Amino acid sequence: VVFITYMVRRWREVGRDPAAGIVIARYEPPSDYSPAALRFIRRMGADTRCVTADLLSLAVNGNVQIERDKGFLKDSWILRRVAGHRDGLSASQKQLLDGFFTGGNELKLDNKNHSLLQNAIKKQTQELETAYADRMFKRHGGSVGKAFLIGVASMAAAAFFSGGHGVPALVVLGVLMLFALMAFSFLVRAPTSEGRKLLDEIAGLKLYLGVAERDDLARLSGPDAPPQLDAERYQKLLPYAVALEVEDAWTDKFTLAVGAAAAAATTAAISWYHGDSISSLSKLTNAVSSSLNSQIASASTPPGSSSGGGGGGSSGGGGGGGGGGGR
Questions:
Q1: How would you list the strands of the sheet with 106-108, edge to edge?
Q2: Which one of 11, 107, 122, 224 is CB 3.0 to 4.6 Å from 15, fit for a cystine?
Q3: How far is CA 265 from CA 83, 227, 247, 248, 251, in A?
């Protein structure tokens, strides 16, 4: 009872989100935020798709080339660093770029390089944590820690007073308390006032990127008319669509705007990706989002270990608000 009462009280005190603002379509990403930064803030934490989104942004920016060779049993992925400018790169993107290529200008995404990949991803995550955690959202780790201690004390007291009887019931109770603690650690997270404003902007960008149907486009309201959608703009915003998991809708939107022939020409003209999946823009989108994301998750895991969840599947639609935290 004390365990549950404490968590409910703390959630009411600190876990409720500030009220969301009015979400309108945004045609550009919030300035000075990389794709990974927007995903990190929206999720209130990092995952593999943060890496994928920033890597794709580096490729579109001309800093990296991505190559995928189809194999009989598995594909081979290679990243190649392109010498040139670093203007406009965020701190987390620089960490990723330098970390991936500490051993040279070419990196194969496989388990042999898991240590290098882990270190690069760790540095990117640390950069995101330093820049945005606490400023944009609060995890309230102290409250989670206190809830854990209360839970442990409650279990110890229950075991003592039961006199060693009812062990199965104690095990079930312990499992239920563990799930309750996990739920609490998620719900107690909440954006700050600054973070809430940015979440509204992120939701507006996702609304624009994720609306692909012609009728929905006609109803889309924003501060002014959306910019003309061409190949350059499509590629520029693709990493943000991947970060927000609306890459398929963004590709459909581009194809609808320019026509199938122009979309095919865009596919053929892309220079930062080489692979068998280049035959169509939809296949390329899948390759540089879900497939690349899975490969990074697998390659950064030591041999013999499970890669776990890579964070985010292929796209969805629409434009939801912030993801996570107590409501």
A1: 106-108, 76-81, 64-69, 273-275
A2: 11
A3: 27, 20, 19, 18, 14
Tens digit of each residue's pLDDT (9 = 90 or more) over 156-191: 877 777 776 777 877 887 888 888 888 877 677 788
* pLDDT digits 0-9 by tens, 223-232: 577 888 999 9
Share of residues in the chain with pLDDT > 70 (%): 83
Confirm if 293 and 105 have CB atoms less than 8 A apart. Answer: no
What pLDDT digit, counting tens, does each position of 75-126 carry? 889 999 998 778 889 999 999 999 999 989 999 999 899 999 999 999 999 9
Residue with token string 């995404």 = 109
Contact 238, 53 (CB under 8 A): no
Q: Which residue has the higher pLDDT, 36 or 74?
A: 36
Domain chopping of the chain, boundaries: 35-135+192-299, 140-188
Task: Return the amino acid letter for 323.
Answer: G
Q: Give Rg (Cα) of the chain.
A: 22
- How far apart CA 258 and CA 30 sit, in angstroms, is 25
